[in-house]
Amino acid sequence: MKLFYLKITAVFALLLFAAQAWAWHDKTHLMIAKAAGRTSWYNAAGPDLAKIKAGNIEEYNHWYNNNAEAEVTVMMVMDQVGRYNQRNKLMDSEGHVYGAIIASLRAYNKAVQSGKYAEYHLDYCVHYIGDLSQPLHNIPYDDYNKKWHRATDGVVENTIWNEADRITAQMYEIRLSAENLEADLAREIARIANISRRLGYRLRAEKRGMTREEAFEQMGHSASLIRAVLRRYH
Length: 234
Fold this sequence. Notes:
By secondary structure, this protein is mostly helical.
């Protein structure tokens, strides 16, 4: 019986590992945050480190597989907020990165109001917004995604340390109103998610990886939204 449970545990662990999808590699996350003006840009890769110890509690905050290939809506974004830091693989197999962005800002506000140090919550938010522009984090984790995911994560990793200007060149103005902050943010999250998933579908249809030019354009979306968030929260 003990051997049976060990085998089941091993199989489950393998399935869990196979289902994991990482994100932009470390330097890429750091440079997105730096281009956006985050003073603690050096923390931007931290949430990926947390996945090693926190497992599913953190893992599902980084992607949305969108198995139905549906248009991302404001309602879809808000429906994900309550699943932040949840670990129910059966009930939430697709992940919830869209909701994690808003939920991490709620956690930031809660920490501020209670007099606690809140900046790490904002660092998590910056990371999740970075994940938002990775196209393969917005489409089903199918055979194409598994084959190309690692290459997509690292498409500019080896050179980006000296190419922050290529991100800033793609940035644009995003306005988040103080009166309707969450509604505005949810709308922008949905907009960028739809841009990202459509690129993901195109890459899949063409059976190729993302070009460097496409990568920098995507990062510009994330950096633009991060900058807009930082203006409201700092």
